[in-house]
Amino acid sequence: MAIEKSKLNYPNKMARLFVESVEETIGSEAMRAVYNTAGVPSNLYPPPNNLAKEFDFAYFSALVGTIDQMYGGRGGRGLALHAGRAGFAGGLGEYGPVMGISDLAFKAIPLRAKLKVGLKAFVETFNKFSDQITSVADAGDHFVYTIHQCPVCWGRTSPKPICYVSVGLIIEGLRWVSGGRTFGVEEVACHAAGDEFCVFHVPKEPED
Predict the structure, then answer these.
(1) Which of 64, 80, 95, 157 could be 164's S-S partner, Cβ–Cβ 3.0 to 4.6 Å?
(2) Is residue 93 over pLDDT 60?
């Protein structure tokens, strides 16, 4: 599953949270097998616990793709969604203050305003701390969240969208900014499926 290095990087901390989340479910021995099959150097197991921008997109994508292969579509999707949610929840302590979403004043504003401010903060944080170029736009009844350089599907191909890690991360981020509400985030376009960018629709109304 080895993918040619991209020279684009994710923060070590976010990659580590992904690895640790999957490892909690499948165990360390299985996680080492994922690393070996993915062609990711063993000295990066797990990635360093810091915010340095050093974990290549190719490594991240290879890990996600190998998990899909080893655990099947449904199993891989579940692990990826869980890992994405854990990535936001675990990284909030480091990124929350920078994103401006940990202030009491933020928690007091109306729900739709929270979503708009929160999504903008997510975008700015990824653009600042990683090589994942991201944008968000208001499309009336939903927001359009676009990843222009995606570490989840880098170098892979698929007949359908596969960026479940990103879906999980957005869901968890929105759950936090909304005070526990769940939003039906959907990936509607994916670079791996031949689209120019990875595009996610985020409804303005929660499911619950």
Answers:
(1) 80
(2) no
